[in-house]
Amino acid sequence: MNARIGPAALVLSAVTLAAAGGAGLRQGPPPPFDHPQHAKLFVSCATCHAGATEAGGTMMPRAESCVSCHDGRVEGRVQWGPRLGPRASNIRFDHRRHDEIRRARRDTSETCADCHAERSAPWMRVRGPSAPQCLSCHTPGRTEHLAAPDTACASCHLPLSRATAVPKERVAKFPAPATHAATGFMQTGGHGAQSEPTAPGSRVAQSCATCHARDFCAACHVNAPEMATIQALESDARSLTLSHELKAPATHAAKDFESRHGAQAGRTGASCATCHTQESCATCHRAAAPRSALALSPAGPGRGIGARTIRKPPSSHAPGWEARHAPFAAASMKNCVSCHTRDSCLSCHRPDAARRGSYHPASYLTRHPADAYSRASSCSDCHNVGEFCQSCHAQAGLSARRTLLGAGGYHDGKRQFFVGHGQAARQALESCVSCHVERDCLTCHSVIRGRGFSPHGPGFDSERMLRKNPQLCIACHGTAIPRR
Amino acid sequence: MLLATGALGVLPTLAPAQSWRLRFDASAQRVAFRGITPDSVSESQVITGPTGGPVSPDGFAVTCSGDGFCRYFRAGALRRGVPASAGTDLTLWGLGIAGLRLRVHARTVTDLTGDRVWPGTSPSFRLVEGYAEYAREGLTAKLGRLLEQSRLGSAGAGGLDGIHATYRWTAPGLELGGYAGWGLARGTVLPVTSPAVNPLAEFQPGRRQVVAGALAGVHRRSLDLEAEYRREVDTFTDYFVSERFAVSLQARPVHALRVGAGADYDLAQGLWGSADATIAYSGQGVWATLGARHYRPFFDLWTVWGVFSPVPHNGISGSIAANPLSNVQLQARAEWFRYEDTETSTPTVTVEDRGWRWGVDAAITLNPRWRIEAGGHRELVPGAASGGVNGRVTWSPDEALKVSVQGGSLERPLELRFQDAGVNWAGGAVDYRIAERWSAGLSVDRYWESRDRPDPAAFDWNQWRVSARVSLTLGSAADQWVLPPGKPRSPTP
Question: Distances from the Cα of A55 to the Cαs of A44, A61, A103, B432, in angstroms?
């Protein structure tokens, strides 16, 4: 940090923090009512909380009732007021309903302290009720809160979407049941099976709805719109505060996953549909989407982003692969088109005259004779000898436009090359024809128009050639084609 | 250019049910090359040069052929060209028939200097591919201008105007197919009757050849095997232009090991053509290949070149690449080969009958922004040799921009011509992704090239080479684009 700016920034930060703190003190909620402090004043809970048992009564006293003592003379004034709006809780509890049930049972033993205080606690040392206390009645024999059966959750809890007053910070701290850490919970038959409804008339497990909403599920399940249990949940953005890291299944870490995932996906891609949309496949499969990819849902509103796939070359595509791919591509073009479009091939195999070459290195125009003489790669895979080689050589004066005699002297690296060119010609005939035309050679090698020097060498099958295309024979021999 | 503009105008009016993808690109570069110009002097004017050989009065080494004239080559003019092209690649689907797709890839190309000195600039319009494809269940059928990409496809006729159909039985992994139509010339999208493929005004067929072929393939998890038969017939004479058979194999016997092999047989000449086999290993940070190659040139039977009996050469090659450190990549490759016996008796002239080549490259990624690459190669083959070094430094401040500077040096002596060529070059390039579907690039290089020999025929042709390109992709479907980054964790609102 700049030395001049540093102190000023520190001072500014301190002022800002102080201002924010002051504002927080002024605007924060009033302190809770100190029950033990008032233990000697009240002898009955109903004095202030008559609504718990009486119809028409209020659950909280009015603030004015405090002023009878806290008037600034007898006692200091206090900032207190009854809670406004819904309770910031997802507890589903009706005091009067419970009191009615108690009355119906003629149960006179239960008191407020049974739920709101520890056993043998002093008068008015109150606390909130605990889950085991609820469970002791609602699920006899099972008092572990987060192990309660699915149907028990809704007895005490509202679905998250209806507990609107619970701030997202508290949602983020909702405790996770032990089942969520169990092996296989995230796999098929895990949380999906547990999300099936158990209560009559319900479309999703109530235990899920207690803490989760549709948004949470849809963050991973890109097929959420097609899943009835997820659609049964209400939407609530607070559910996204419950973070879950999406991990790839173990199958994805296999060394040969790249080559096997197509078979694993099958035709329907059902096993992939949870985390992947069509876009996951299209990251690599850009030319033609496999059938299983088309069976997946396309990305769109209402769906999560799902798993991210990264386009990278397969392990076989080592550095320099472009120079060695030919035998593999020839045997299995379908493997190539999984990821490559036609452009990938044609950018080299049908080069653009106006584009700087990418396959060949810079300065290749100068270097190319060494590669072309011995065909380091097959030039004619991408270049037409006439259109490319001959036309360029002709522009550079490298063509025998008249006769061999007219172009004599070019191959001056070898004395008497003209009379001893046979070996070079048979070794690099493709290079010869990039400058020479047939009539150059037929000047000597034709029987009817030249001197009859036979050009035929190893492997020449005259009978076969005669059968396949006698025009070749006629070009030099005329109609008097010699027979073996 | 007009084609692209027209396509852009028409696309918005397409029926809303259609889906489409259009890539438009345009490129231009300024290039120059320099050749030679034949000249001659009367034999009576020739004098003896300082090394004892015949030279012209102005010092050019000459070759006298006994007809009263001695010939030599002066430096040619520096020819400059500005080839420019615009291309469109349009794919339409969702046409109301499931599995139907239309594709057109066309290109206009010209030389802005008007001289068309650069190869591949005439004719101006080229339909690279244009076909309707119907794919349903195991059937795939295409009709139109097609480019075959198979062992005989890219090395053989390569393309046709016709039909191609295959049927694949998924369970046994069996595929059968065939194609028929009018063929294109090798290595281009032009028919063999096009003047562009006959710049030297040599014999040329008057009609396009008919091409037909059959395909059979077996595709299993660890094995791909394809066989292809192809024949081409001159429709004017009804004689063969070619008749060939090829087989290709790719096997993955164990994880990390891959075998690729193939061969073609020339039924018309009764000779094995080219064949090769490669074993490739892909390990943890190490890749290696070992291969053998038998290469024999192939000529159509409408030329006489095949009867001149070009001999094949046989070679072995290997390569290895490794990442010794996570940010360091090294690779090396080498090949050795030897020609088969040419059965020629030329005691006055001998040429090399074997050759070798090797190359090494290294790349270091200093950090996500900086990358340094360097390499060198050397090859000594019959006819020519070359050796040189090159290097490049790339700076990528973000994913959209890439700036690089490069340079190198190369020597290239020839065996059959008395001339040593050398070139040094340096330059820079900028690639910029303007938006997700827009990209552009510009490169400028300076070349210092010389053709050295000890007489006035030596010359230089230094030049600036400038290249520019722009590419735009449009489309109606999201499944063809670079995806937004996914979020492995649930977002916090």
Answer: 17, 15, 14, 74
Residue with tokens 């891609």: A269
Let me know if residue B177 belongs to a domain.
yes
- For chain A, what percentages of helix, strand and coil (3-state, to nearest 5) are there? 45, 0, 55
Rg (CA), chain A: 44
DSSP output for A303-314 = S-----------
Of A158, A114, A118, A155, the residue nearest A138 (C-alpha):
A155
Taken as a whole, chain B contains a residue count of 493
Mutate to test the interface with B, among A240, A332, A435 (most CBs of B within 10 A): A332
Chain B residue whose CA is closest to A328: B260
Are B343 and A438 an interchain contact pair (Cβ–Cβ within 8 Å)? no
> Which among A305, A346, A367 has CB closest to B486?
A305
CA-CA distance, B486 to A304, in Å (whole number)? Answer: 9
Range of the domain at B273: 148-188+202-282
Name which of B26, B343, B52, B453 is nearest A425 in CA terms: B343
How far does the CA of residue B37 sit from the closest CA of chain A (Å)?
A: 6
State the Cα–Cα distance between residues B484 and B493, nearest whole angstrom: 19
Question: Which of A268, A277, A364, A472 to mutate to probe the B interface, most B CBs <10 Å?
Answer: A472
Residue B164 domain-assigned (yes or no): yes
Provide the shortest C-alpha distance from residue A14 to chain B (in Å): 29
Assigned domain for B258 exists: yes
- From chain A, the residues in CB contact with B349 under 8 A are 414-417, 419-421, 423-424
Are A464 and A436 contacting, i.e. CB atoms less than 8 angstroms apart?
no
Q: Give percent helix, percent strand, percent coil of chain B, each to the nearest 5.
A: 5, 60, 35
* Number of domains chain B contains: 1
**Chains A, B: CB contacts under 8 A, how many?**
481
Considering only CB atoms, B307 lies closest to which of A240, A428, A455, namely A455
Nearest to A246 among B73, B119, B488 (CB): B488
Which helix (H) or strand (E) element contains residue A423? helix A422-427
Considering all CA atoms of chain A, what is the largest pairwise distance in Å, rounded to the nearest integer? 140
Cα–Cα dist A430/B382, whole Å: 13
List per-residue pLDDT tens for chain B, 493 residues long: 444 444 444 444 444 446 788 889 999 999 988 889 888 899 999 999 888 889 999 999 998 878 888 889 999 988 899 999 999 999 888 888 888 889 999 999 999 998 888 888 989 999 999 999 998 888 999 999 999 888 887 654 578 999 999 999 988 889 999 999 999 998 899 999 999 999 887 888 999 999 999 999 999 888 999 999 999 999 999 999 999 999 999 999 988 899 999 999 999 999 999 999 999 999 888 999 999 999 999 999 999 999 999 999 999 999 999 999 989 999 999 999 999 999 998 778 889 999 999 999 999 999 999 999 999 999 999 999 999 999 999 999 998 999 999 999 999 999 988 889 999 999 999 999 998 789 999 999 999 999 999 899 999 999 999 999 999 988 765 344 333 333 333 333 3
Q: What DSSP state is assigned to residue A298?
A: P
Separation CA A222–CA B296 (nearest Å): 55
Tokens representing residue B210 in the block: 């008919």
Predicted TM-score (pTM) of the model is: 0.77
> Does a structural domain hold residue B260?
yes
**B150 contact partners, CB below 8 Å, separation of at least 6:** A330, A333, B215, B226, B228, B246, B248
Structure tokens at A134: 């609820």
Asked if B200 and A386 come within 8 Å (Cβ–Cβ), the reply is yes
Our CA-based measurement puts residue B136 at a distance from the nearest CA of chain A, in whole angstroms, of 10
Question: Which of residues 67 through 86 in chain B touch A, CB cutoff 8 A?
Answer: 67, 70-73, 76, 79, 83-85
Cis peptide before B123 (omega within 30 of 0): yes
